[in-house]
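## retry 2 of 3
previous attempt timed out at serialization; input unchanged, resubmitting
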Amino acid sequence: MNQELSHKTYKTGTTTLGIVCKDGVLLAADRRVTAGFVAHKKFKKIVQIEENMAVTTAGSVSEAQLLSKLIRAELSLKNIQTNRKSTAKEVANLLAGLVYSNVRQSWMFQSIAAFLLAAKDDEGFYLYSLGPDGSLIQHEDYAFDGSGEMFAIGVLESHFKKGMTVSEAIKVAVKAINAAIQRDIYTGNGIDIITVTEKGLEWVKEEELIYSLKE
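## retry succeeded, writing output
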């Protein structure tokens, strides 16, 4: 990200989604940042916060960056203090608390952020949505957020199948985000997808995303 972007509060009018699969969970997001114009074309809206956990970001860039740094720092401290890895539920509640506290402090500036959390712990795979007010919801199928969600949800609902594999879900996620790119002016400039499986956390390669679009 360039220096100009890091010192301004831009809005990530965006499309993000998460899908729970039988062998893992994934997150997907577009790359466009807007401020009345296209301010950035390659912004990573998926952030790894732990070894097997990641979040998508939506809202103001500055707020999303701050909260992503805070949750990583708090998790490192908590793991040291407890001498163990935090569970997915603990991480979700910790992040929700940070979001709640932060929005109460900055409400006058209308600087807010929301997240989708994909996580793996010893008990399984999880998907949570965290609203800009600090609300927390666990999802057993899929979740979405952003200005383009109304366009993505139709594709997601029509193609989603309970018990689908991560490989199948990647294709659905690509189609859903692409639908938003075609219709929402605040969504665009490519797609990023991250998967959390028994193998760990992995970014889906660009070639696989392009192939999925052609299918």
